[in-house]
Amino acid sequence: MRRLPFLFLLFPYFLFSQQLQKVDFKTLNATLSLDTANKKIAGKTTYVFEVLSTIDTIRIDAKNMSFSNLKINNNTVEFKNSGKELLLFKGFKKGKNTLTFEYEATPKQTLYFIGEKENLQIWTQGQGKYTSHWLPSFDDVNEKVIFGLTISFDKDFTVLSNGKLKKVADVNQAQKQWEYQMEKPMSSYLAMLAIGKFAKQTETTASGTPLEMYLSQEDASKFEYTYKYSKTIFDFFESEIGVKYPWGIYRQVPVKDFLYGGMENTTSTIFSQDYVVDEIGFNDRNYINVNAHELAHQWFGDLITATSGKHHWLQEGFATYYALLAEKELFGEDHFNWEMYEIAERLQQASKTDTIPLMNEKASALTFYQKGAWALHILRENVGAKNFNKAVKKYLEKYAFKNVNTADFLAEINAVSKYDTKNFQEIWLEKSGFEVTEALGILQKNKFIKNYLDVLSLAEKPLAEKQQIFEETLKSEAYYPIKEEILFQLQSLEFPEKLPFIQIAMQSKDIKVRQAVAKTLNKFPAEFLPDFETFLDDNSYVTKEIALNVLWSQFPDNRTKYLDKSRNWIGMNDKNLRILWLTMALATKDFEPENKLGYYDELLGYVSPNYESSIRQNALINLLYINPNDTNVLRMLVNPLTHHKWQFSKFARDKIRELIKKEKYKLFFSELLPSLQENEKVALERLLNP
């Protein structure tokens, strides 16, 4: 009896697997229209499929859709709509068939309508198996189809989808129609839409592939630093992987309030607006790693796709590892080995509680991505880069546009090497934990890592025993993490004792070394003030924020001076510096009292749904610090409860749970319920009455 739920869960998958053996869907062409006012999508759809052998029912995944005018081979036929699937049981024949129908849906997920009017963006995120919420398709990644999507929308917007743009035509005075067509098959979860007011730039790779890069029109000045090294990464991958980019065109577009860092939709990556940066922001948080990761997926995940979650590491491990190889190409061996070392530290720490191995569909993201990358590094180091690349090339060519499992990949390793892949699989893929000794053995081949570990081992030594090493290292060209570690070890010392080392470090041209000084120097005498104030001019929004916080807190008599200097700072995508400035301006006694109301209103305005969640959350945190009893602020905590971005929703839930421990806040939120929209009301009631 206890097995019944398990069998029930397997039953639909068994049916779909059986369908794959008996029916081959070839192409999907859909003409789509979007109703922004009601957040609906409608489409006219044509599927061409081949029945290979007798089958009772053909299934197409379709969540909460309505269907009309359904025909198979031009004949109207009966069908069933389960609310989860479109089920066909009449009208098809052995051999080629054509299915046509119209549909409508109001998706609760996967298709998102963000903002309004000029600020409207519409985008999809079909990760894994969710495209069936907006397009009748296949949740099983093993069913690959050639997609062609034609989308009608407001002519003043840009519409992006998968494949090559075949045609843009006027529908009427207000709308245009964009026709996109894939040339090769792909899994349904990789289908996409992105609509917005975008600016565009194009480059051409060494092999002739067009790289289309998009930004919101207001961010048009940020192309250079947002997309820095994009062409270099693309050219490196084609050379390193040894297989030409398979899709003909590649485009990238950032969208607001995206759920993740990026998503590798075939030919058309969507990524987070947080990675749109200017020259200074590039030094703090840039798109390079996500850019390389999503591009690598165009081979590992899109060209070849894992058969099931058990083999998911073949996608995320490869994309993570090749992104690191791209960074190695850009920034050198020391950078690459430092990244691998930091990953190893995270994996070692996580292994204390994370006991699910890599080849398990329930493995954590850390395991799939980062342990997967380490497993590949172990392979590459043991079979040699030349043999590894040869195996990867053969693997991609052999299974192009198909599905793969771990055995398929390891068979190609076996073909080029006598390395014991059976033992490798047992230790790195099927066993939990992290093999620290083997990983460190590889890392310590790198001189920088060996030196870093030597410095790390000095942590408990008195300064007299390590002073000379610290001075020599700080004056050297050593990679910044070693210098950062030295500054951390000096942090607890009295200021006069560590001053000579601080002065050396501050002469560095490396932003991260100077930032480490600012992080570790919370207290210092007034004589050092002119030196510390130089951090306010560093080309880092993070360093500026650290320095402004320290100076405002430690030297209250100079607050007006620092506020005047930072008055026009904005900062990163979350407006970190502007929101910090407003908070300080409001908290500084006697600073521009005539403007305080305006500053408070500006800060309160950033909580509005007109802004991205990162800005709203930052503003809420600061407003609650300034005045936790402002009912306007408390009211604005409720709306995020229903936000599609789970990180923002969780922030609001946690904050309200914390507040309602006090009776006055619980009473306020309870009295607020009748004035709320239904979805907000339901979400808040769950917190008030768990």
From TrEMBL:
All residue ranges annotated as the Peptidase M1 membrane alanine aminopeptidase domain in the record: 225-428
Similarity section: Belongs to the peptidase M1 family.
This enzyme's EC code(s): 3.4.11.2
Catalytic activity line of the entry: Release of an N-terminal amino acid, Xaa-|-Yaa- from a peptide, amide or arylamide. Xaa is preferably Ala, but may be most amino acids including Pro (slow action). When a terminal hydrophobic residue is followed by a prolyl residue, the two may be released as an intact Xaa-Pro dipeptide
InterPro entries: Aminopeptidase_N-like_N, Aminopeptidase_N-like_N_sf, ARM-type_fold, Peptidase_M1, Peptidase_M1_aminopeptidases, Peptidase_M1_dom, Peptidase_M4/M1_CTD_sf
Pfam families in UniProt: Peptidase_M1, Peptidase_M1_N
Top-rank EC class of the record's enzyme: hydrolase
Needed cofactors: Zn(2+)
Magnesium is among the record's keywords: no
One term under GO cellular component: cytoplasm
Organism annotation: Flavobacterium endophyticum
Any GO BP annotation: proteolysis
Limits of the Aminopeptidase N-like N-terminal domain: 31-190
Keywords: Aminopeptidase, Hydrolase, Metal-binding, Metalloprotease, Protease, Zinc
The protein's name in its UniProt record: Aminopeptidase N
S-adenosyl-L-methionine keyword on record: no
Any GO molecular function: zinc ion binding
